[in-house]
Structure formats: C-alpha cells, structure tokens
Amino acid sequence: MTDNDNKVLTVDNLSLGYTDGRGDKVAVLRDVSLAIRAGEVIGLVGESGCGKSTLALALLGFLRSGGEVLGGRICYRQQSLFELPATELARLRGGQIALIPQNAGQSLTPTMTLQAQLCEALQLHSDLPASEHRARAIELLTLVRLPSPAALLSRYPHQLSGGQQQRVAIAMALAGEPEVLLLDEPTTGLDVTTQAHILELLRELRQRLGTTMVFVSHDLGVIARVSDRIAVMYAGEMVELGACAEVLRQPAHPYTCLLYTSPSPRDRG
C-alpha cells in the first residue's frame, strides 16, 4: 500500500472565509494542511474561535452560512469534497464520514423514540432491509455499552442522562459504518466521571472497529488521552503538528506551551 492509499482525508493549503460588510474577504482558516491516515486519531486543539470546529465541519464538506473556500481543497480518498455534486456529498455524510456533535441532547429529536431515530439513521446510511433495523439498533446500543438496549429503544432522549445521550449519538453516527468519525467537543459539559467513560468507549471503538477519528477539543488533557497526533490551532492557522508524546513533552510553539501549562478551561463557545 502506498502512502497516498493510506491517507483517508487530505487538507491541502485550505483557506476558508466570509465576506464582511464592506465586501472584503475575511479568512477564518488560513493555509491549513493536514493528512489523516487510516485508523489514526488526530486531536485538533485550541481555544474557542481558533477555527478548529470550522475545520472539522469542512472535513464533512460543510460550510456555515456565508462561508466560502478562498483557496486549497479537502479530499476524501482523492475526491475533492467541495467539488462533489450535492447528492454524492449527502451520501458521503453519515456514510463514509460521520459527525458526533458537542451537545447530543440538542442533536437528538425530542419527539422521536431512540428506535425511530436509530432506524432512520440506518435507513439513510445502510443497506439493511427495514426488517433488520430494530435488531441492528440493539446491536449499536450494545456496542456503545448502554444497558438493557432493547428496553431503551422505546425511550425518548429526555429520559436519558447526558452520558447516555452522548452514547446514543455515537451509536447513530456508527449506523452507516463510517470510515471517519468527526468528534466536535463530544465530552464538553459532561462531568469528569462520565467524560472518562466516554473517552474509554472511544478508545475501545477505535481498537475494535479501526475507525479513523478527528477529535476536536479546547482541552489538551482530553486530546492527549485519545490522540496519536496533535494539531494545535491558533487564530485560524495550524501552528503545531506532531506525535502526541512529542508535542506534550517538548512543545515547539509558544501557544502550545500556554495550553499545556494553563488549567483546563470551559469552552466559552
């Protein structure tokens, strides 16, 4: 296998931005480059507003309203995401690349049971016949270590704890058996014990399924517990990239040093 064959996602000199009130282009990401290999976990770390979540969403081929590509490109398996037809991009999202959002409670539909939501995800992102959706939904809830999964299917999101909701969000993301999971602050807002359980679950899923992951966080400590490599974002630029142990042991950029020595803050959005 060549090195190119082993690259799942490639970010090549990507710049993203918006047009301000005067008609000028304002970049929020500038000349970002990153190659993500099959089976690895990349941690994207930086303070709120640095561009890490914007980059993660761009890996889905998604831009917030008014956003545009100012230069460069992102490729999934050598397919340029922003050049794909809308129908192909829609199939890729949730299929080959899936997103686990920060707030599972807001991402789950409050008026639908877990069974209805999991079956909908399976209908959209798998080839299973409808007759097998319930059994697969139980398998997915078992995979994310939720107790009594068959009984849980009849529940609504508000009847679950925050940690359980996050596990359901992970199960839904896994419905299409994606090659890549994008995790946007998946443990923010959870208590320390629940956070530790979610991180252990993600490590287990990575080992069992071989899933490539991009883990976004403002917390370098959390990133260090799950990542093979760390990419440090600051003011829209990637200022440091390296093996997790090397970045932690000998950070090269002053901003990384500040992240390492600062107490873990709560993300301020």
Walk me through the structure.
Residues 265-269 have low confidence and may be disordered. The chain has a domain at 1-96 and 213-269: P-loop containing nucleotide triphosphate hydrolases (Rossmann fold, 3-Layer(aba) Sandwich). α5 (114-125) packs parallel to α8. The protein has twelve helices and ten strands. The strands form two sheets. A six-stranded mixed sheet has the order 6-7-8-3-9-10, with helices on both faces. The longest helix has 18 residues, at 192-209. A hairpin with a 2-residue loop joins β4 (68-76) and β5 (79-80). The protein is an alpha/beta fold. It is 37% helix and 26% strand. The protein is globular and about 50 Å long.
Short recap of the structure:
The protein has 269 residues and is an alpha/beta fold. The protein has helices spanning 3-6, 52-58, 86-92, 104-107, 114-125, 133-143, 149-152, 162-173, 192-209, 220-226, 244-249, 254-261, and strands at 7-19, 25-37, 41-45, 68-76, 79-80, 97-100, 180-184, 212-217, 229-234, 237-243. Strand 9 (229-234) and strand 10 (237-243) form a beta hairpin.
